[in-house]
Specification:
- By secondary structure, the chain is an alpha+beta fold.
- It has one domain: Nucleoside Triphosphate Pyrophosphohydrolase, CATH 3.90.79.
- Helix content is 25%, strand content 29%.
- Strands 1, 2, 3, 4, 5, 6 and 7 form a 7-stranded mixed sheet that branches.
- The longest helix has 14 residues.
- It is globular.
């Protein structure tokens, strides 16, 4: 599989964990709401990339068994994972972005400051679960 990075739509209870992207020069979608994840290192598998990036960005250790969905969009692979709501206490924000927040997934899907194709992928995931 050819890919450059991986993202995780990470649910804590019924809410979605999102990160506010920074304004680093050259970054796509500066200031938009993003999912945990990022660029591939070396010959990482998509799952390994998603797990590493989630640990680096929000301090949450996920097991590969939690990753579901696995959908490739362009050069990125998207996963979903679900944790109990009380795991929010374990979040330790890293050094990328302006912060994190939890929000209902329907709110993310409707927001103008959410990355547009991420909104569409989230909606597709949610519709597939119904």
């Amino acid at each position: 599989m050819s890919f450059e990075g991986a993202k995780v739509m990470l649910f804590l209870g019924g809410d979605l964990l999102v990160i506010r992207r920074d304004h680093t020069e050259g970054i796509p979608w500066p200031g938009y709401l993003d999912f945990p994840g990022g660029g591939r290192e070396g010959d990482e598998r998509p799952e390994d990339c998603a797990l590493r990036e989630t640990r680096e960005e929000v301090g949450l250790e996920l097991s590969e068994e939690l990753l579901e969905w696995g959908h490739q969009h362009g050069y990125a692979v998207f996963f979903a994972a679900h944790l109990p709501a009380d795991r929010a206490r374990d979040i330790r924000f890293g050094d990328e972005g302006y912060g994190w927040q939890l929000m209902p997934p329907e709110e993310y899907a409707a927001r103008e400051d959410a990355i547009p194709h991420f909104r569409a992928l989230l909606t597709a995931y949610l519709e597939g679960r119904d």
